[in-house]
């Protein structure tokens, strides 16, 4: 009889191995999918890794801790829901240096505890808590990057049931995946921060090119308000004082100062280094704000600006970023017309709604136009034909538009001039 049991067990072994391999394969693709779907947020990735690790290693609870200055902080806990809530209520989120988990991570090798009750050596507060929580068998695998400890995965069971060699090697794979996910998101974050800093620097630089015009824009209403104030004083000096006239003049002062603060607000929101955020935006209004900021520059250069704004679906976008795109395109257009000989300097800004659901914005100038050799290079970073140019404007614009799911392109116009267009899908 013993023999027949043995024979059955051997027959089912290859089948078990195949099932196990399929399970592992599925677990790996779940983690990869989580990494692909969530490049900015680590939590779903950690959850997917821990879900797979606890399931495949037949653990009751999985905990992922990440290194920080003062120890290891629990960032994801998965498994039996009752045990998960018990974990959060009985264990401190931070396992300080010298605590039991920290010492296990410091080994830099997987630590397997077959039976916690039989553990030899120092039994600290963590050990007592784990005992009280009913933990019996445990496995701790450090996350290492260049031999630096970046975290720790622990898998535990409520019964004395040692982990097999295969489960230990599996948990090592999961620790490696968690380390890769951490690295990908860290790089992604660094890249985004660098892009944001660049975009901010470009906005400040572009605004810098408009300083003289904007100063003029602000000075105008202040001068007007001063003249109105002088008039109000004269009306008050009359005998009897002409209160009706004073009231009218005061209203004009309020309007003029309102214009000044509008300009300052618009500059403020463009210069501010705010993180990108998506909101429902009326693109036409956002465009008009930018044309208002550039109006004086256009006047100074002798450019006539016309706008043809169609009714648009509301789009979800980062308002400041799209205004930055408009600012770059408008300033480039004005600059391209500076050296044009005749007085026919025209800038036309138009919007239209496009099928299926989206908007298309066009900025067309009658400037020097695009040289055939520069057409394919316009959007390359650092490509510039201006002595004081940075060559960053258009590449940042394209990155912004593409991040919104749209497209930005340029075409030459006849008899001269350039047309820049971009689309943004509505969602
Ligand atoms: P920069 O303005 O600092 O040169 P951009 O990336 O904004 O950087 O522009 C890159 C180049 O594209 C410009 O140097 C110019 O040669 C060309 N360009 C951009 N806009 C226009 C335009 N409206 N008309 C003609 N050339 C343009």
Describe what this molecule looks like in 3D.
The protein contains eleven helices and 13 strands. It has 427 residues and is an alpha+beta fold. The chain has three domains: 2-190, Beta-Lactamase, CATH 3.30.450.40; 210-273, Helix Hairpins; 277-427, Histidine kinase-like ATPase, C-terminal domain (Heat Shock Protein 90). A six-stranded antiparallel β-sheet has the order 3-2-1-6-5-4, with helices on both faces. Strands 8-10-11-13-12 form a five-stranded mixed β-sheet. The protein has a two-stranded antiparallel ribbon with strand order 7-9. Strand 1 (61-68) and strand 2 (71-79) form a beta hairpin. Helix 7 packs antiparallel against helix 8. The longest helix is centred in the middle third of the chain and has 45 residues, at 165-209. It is elongated, with a radius of gyration of 33 Å. The termini are far apart. Residues 1-9 have low confidence and may be disordered. The structure holds adenosine-5'-diphosphate. Residues 328, 332-333, 336, 365, 367-368, 370, 374, 378, 383-386, 389-395, 418 line the site of adenosine-5'-diphosphate.
List the helices and strands and how they pair.
Elements: H1 2-37, H2 43-56, E1 61-68, E2 71-79, H3 81-90, E3 94-96, H4 100-106, E4 111-113, H5 125-132, E5 137-145, E6 148-157, H6 165-209, H7 211-237, H8 243-271, E7 279-281, H9 283-301, E8 304-309, E9 315-317, H10 319-338, E10 346-354, E11 358-365, H11 393-403, E12 407-412, E13 418-425
Parallel strand pairs: 8-10
Antiparallel strand pairs: 1-2, 1-6, 2-3, 4-5, 5-6, 7-9, 10-11, 11-13, 12-13
The structure holds adenosine-5'-diphosphate (ADP).
Residues 328, 332-333, 336, 365, 367-368, 370, 374, 378, 383-386, 389-395, 418 line the site of adenosine-5'-diphosphate (ADP).
